[in-house]
Amino acid sequence: MSWLWGSSDKGEDKGVASPKSGGSNKSGGSTEMRSLTVSETFPKMSPKEAFDIVFGKDLVIAYQESQGNKNVEVSDWKDVSTDEDKAAGTERLERTLKYTVPMNVPLPKMMADSMGMIDTIANSVETVTIKDGVYEVTATCELTGPPMANKVDVKPLFIVKQDPKEATTGLVECNISFSFNVWGLSSMVEATMESGVRKGFEDLLKMAKTWATDGKPTKK
């Protein structure tokens, strides 16, 4: 199973099913949508410090590589605040995340040569909105390459803020909406997809907490 960091509003143009709950896809199956929430606390850290850990370049690259992706590139944050944002005391930043998702099933060489590639390239745009010490991060992703029939289309919303239970603790919540294609045993597919998406984001937050507690690991 492959899941992408952020969904694309242009999914059908890229050979990917659009996230419509209960709808049908081009292959005769159905497209289902679900949601879940994961969270992690970062003791003795401000929301900014927690944000810098979770969305730091080195951690994002290490995490994507741990998920089997490769050629990971992360740009610097760019200020895209409008005059209206500034008047409202809001800061808006944007960056791009690009990586390659290797195909699980190799194509025959002749077919791969005719397509010009055998992997899927993901281009994700992350946007963070900062207001009153709260960070909200969203992501959209566009794909190029072979269609991924087993792809989970993911829409994450990260909220980084002060833990209401502990003033000296940063809290990272991630609300995730995701859609996936179903052929056949929908209950089995749903359970597999949900556990995979949950584990993916839990692994990200666990990695961030380990780095926050023990420091960034040194490369051997």
UniProtKB/TrEMBL annotation:
Keywords: Membrane
Subcellular location: Membrane
Annotated ranges, domain VASt: 33-216
UniProt entry tagged with the keyword rRNA-binding: no
GO cellular component: membrane
Pfam families to which the protein is assigned, alphabetical: VASt
Biased segments, Low complexity type: 20-30
Region entry Disordered, spans: 1-41
Listed InterPro entries: VASt
Top-level taxon of origin: Eukaryota
Keyword presence, Membrane: yes
Protein's name according to its UniProt entry: VASt domain-containing protein
